[in-house]
Amino acid sequence: MNKTVFITGATSGIGKSCAEKFAENNYNIIITGRRVGLLEEVKKELENKYNTEVTTLCFDVQNKEAVFNAVALLPATTVIDVLINNAGLALGRDAFDEADITDWETMMNTNVNGLLYTSRALLPFIKKTKGHIINLGSIAGKEVYENGNVYCASKFAVDAISKSMRIDLLKHNIKVTSINPGAVETEFSIVRFKGDETKAEAAYKNYIPLTAKDVAETIFYCASLPDHVCINDLTITCLQQANATLFNKN
Ligand code: NDP
Ligand code: 8X3
To answer: Which residue from 72, 130, 224, 249 lies 20 to 30 Å from 240 (Cα-Cα)?
Structure first.
């Protein structure tokens, strides 16, 4: 029987690339996001290209009720082997005393609360399969940088949650992996800079950043190891990035 992966935030970037990578490798896919039209596009694309079954669930991970209601729509026979907690965002890159407080709330509600709600809603499925939870942290969850404040805090929280999950879920033989990428060229910076394409493009200028596919392949590798092997924590950057702030630009 094919395995099933549940991916939050699969309408673009890393989540969408994960959907493609797992579909290519005969997984059935459950994809989520807020943009229903894009979810349907991804479903159609993957079902046409691969011999896979794609289920879409449209909800905002910030909304606890919506998360639990969406998961309750899954048939009782659903089996979930891998959960990729990927949905997330940065909003703004401003000093602590100037940043928009609503942006802070959205980041914490999405990157932290959303991940918590989704994980709890899916744990009954993951317990049954002794499955694998893969959380998207960030290099920003390992080192704080100037004007990164609450985005960094949200990813430090993801780091702590991954470590806690690994301890508390040990008795259930559930694998927990934290993937911490450096700069990846996706819609991330367009969202962070609120549609300002010049600022977003500048974030990836004069070096070769990671692609969403690079990260998806790494995630798939972690999910394909033998049952007794678990990658706990993996930081991945492009060649020209050494840490959260140091780049060797052209
Ligand atoms: P994208 O902006 O390309 O994708 C983000 C995805 O998250 C979209 O599918 C979006 O879907 C979904 N999403 C955002 N907010 C919500 C929400 N409230 N409810 C449901 N879904 C939501 O960015 P990336 O692919 O780059 O980011 C994916 C993850 O990787 C994030 O957690 C990010 O923090 C992390 N990351 C990214 C890095 C980078 O440099 N790009 C580096 C390190 C980590 P929709 O809009 O349809 O809801
Ligand atoms: C995204 C990477 O460096 O913009 O998590 O914070 S960074």
So the answer is: 224
